Write a sequence for this structure.
């Protein structure tokens, strides 16, 4: 590799680091300002998680299995909704134009923002888990040996797919105003697909819903291809929607 | 440093395109403060958005130092800095300090001179740790103007910077852009207030809204600025005839 190519890559990496840093500053300010809302959100999610685990553990599913399903849903829902809701929020504050006026691609900004969202969601998930362990009688001992590497790969592929969906809905949010409501329905659809078996004639839909893969014995190779396809489609559709929104003048309309 | 706008057309819409600006041409030189002057809805902000690379142009050329940057929107965005919508472009739940931090970090601004310069001029020490929500309209507008200087740029643009500001604050703003730390840069302001024309404008693009416009240099303007509208309308009418 020649030095200029290396320098360019370093510059790009630095640029992503700066986006991460600035987004962290913003998220922290948001957390500080709306700390009560965050607190209530965590309590809500803890109760919801408890009810979910309680209902399905009676059907014979293990605690580790259920909490990992909840984890995938919790993180995935955040990844999908955060992208489109942040587009709406930035539009409302008028700051989307600031971000667009910077030197980076909007796609990179959203990618780094997703990483930030992912880290915050992990933190909140840990808090929810601690609340569950402290206030319920669930066996909190998770044996390392019981964690299947296949499940971890599956979770990674699911997260990649969620990113793709996030890009797609974020792109739609640039043009349409009421996308957030639809995104929250989609979030619950993933939850539904994870916990409840759907009729076999609709099982083809499971290819598109990351949480449902595990139930229908889809091969790893195919899952990898599907998740990369979803990410690629999401990325391309976002770029297209971005072009359309600037051309149509929707970009700065609240 | 020179920016040339050559016969540009700007339209909005995806399926149904609406032409907002037709065949507009003018140029801007280093150190100039160009005012886009006209009533509401004539397309002042649209022109700003097109020049700084937010909105694609349909026809015509934008030359930046002689180089054709018509299709290089991201490059134009990189060379520009400013603000749209008065008092907006700020996170209301965050303090001014956090807003400045967000802006400068996002842009990797190693050079904080422009933002420090504007901030010192407005004397905003006491407001740094106040959230934007707690500020008055004028204070928000000043904060927005401070953040507009977030990076050294070749083109600074301001959309209605006088909105919500009292006369003394507008004068402070005029001082900032007249003594801007980067003398090589160009400033473009969209406004419908003749005060800014009188105070700082070195070139005025008067937009009448029906597709006609007139480029006027300051030395050709009447001394009594209160009659500016009538004067420019009359001038334009003669030209149409």
């Amino acid at each position: 590799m020649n030095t200029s190519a290396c320098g360019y890559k370093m510059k790009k990496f630095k640029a992503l680091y700066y986006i991460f840093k600035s987004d962290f500053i913003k998220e922290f300010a948001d957390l500080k300002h709306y700390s009560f809302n965050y607190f209530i959100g965590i309590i809500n999610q803890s109760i919801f998680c408890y009810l979910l685990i309680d209902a399905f553990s009676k059907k014979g599913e293990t605690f580790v299995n259920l909490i990992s399903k909840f984890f995938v849903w919790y993180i995935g829902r955040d990844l999908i909704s955060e992208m489109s809701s942040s587009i709406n929020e930035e539009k409302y504050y008028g700051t989307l134009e600031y971000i667009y006026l910077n030197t980076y691609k909007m796609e990179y900004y959203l990618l780094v923002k997703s990483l930030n969202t992912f880290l915050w969601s992990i933190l909140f998930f840990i808090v929810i888990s601690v609340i569950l362990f402290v206030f319920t009688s669930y066996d909190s001992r998770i044996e390392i040996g019981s964690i299947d590497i296949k499940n971890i790969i599956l979770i990674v592929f699911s997260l990649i797919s969620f990113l793709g969906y996030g890009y797609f809905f974020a792109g739609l949010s640039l043009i349409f105003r009421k996308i957030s409501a639809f995104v929250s329905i989609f979030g619950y659809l993933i939850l539904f697909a994870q916990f409840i078996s759907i009729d076999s004639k609709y099982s083809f839909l499971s290819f598109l819903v990351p949480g449902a893969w595990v139930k229908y014995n889809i091969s790893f190779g195919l899952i990898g291809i599907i998740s990369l396809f979803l990410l690629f489609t999401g990325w391309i559709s976002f770029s297209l929607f971005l072009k359309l929104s600037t051309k149509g003048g929707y970009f700065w309309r609240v | 440093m020179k920016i040339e706008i050559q016969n540009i057309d700007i339209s909005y819409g995806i399926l149904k395109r609406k032409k907002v600006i037709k065949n507009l041409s003018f140029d801007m030189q280093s150190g100039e403060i160009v005012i886009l002057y006209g009533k509401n809805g004539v397309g002042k902000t649209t022109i700003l958005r097109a020049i700084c690379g937010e909105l694609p142009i349909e026809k015509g050329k934008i030359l930046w130092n002689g180089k054709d940057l018509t299709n290089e929107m991201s490059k134009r965005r990189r060379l520009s800095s400013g603000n749209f919508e008065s008092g907006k472009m700020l996170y209301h739940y965050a303090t001014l300090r956090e807003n400045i931090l967000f802006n400068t970090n996002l842009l990797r601004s190693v050079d904080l001179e422009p933002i420090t310069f504007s901030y010192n001029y407005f004397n905003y020490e006491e407001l740094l740790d106040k959230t934007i929500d707690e500020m008055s309209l004028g204070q928000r507008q000043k904060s927005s103007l401070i953040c507009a200087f977030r990076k050294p740029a070749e083109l600074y643009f301001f959309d209605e910077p006088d909105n919500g500001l009292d006369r003394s604050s507008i004068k402070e703003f005029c001082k900032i852009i007249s003594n801007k730390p980067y003398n090589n840069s160009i400033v473009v302001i969209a406004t419908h207030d003749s005060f800014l024309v009188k105070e700082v404008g070195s070139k005025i693009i008067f937009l009448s809204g029906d597709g006609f416009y007139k480029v006027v240099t300051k030395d050709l303007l009447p001394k009594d600025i209160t009659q500016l509208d009538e004067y420019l309308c009359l001038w334009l009418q003669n030209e149409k005839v």
The interface with chain A takes residues 12-14, 49, 52-56, 74, 77-78, 80-81, 84-85, 88-95, 98, 101-103, 105-108, 131, 147 of chain B (CB under 8 Å). Strands of chain B lie at 2-12, 18-29, 33-38, 59-64, 67-68, 80-83, 155-159, 186-191, 203-207, 213-217.
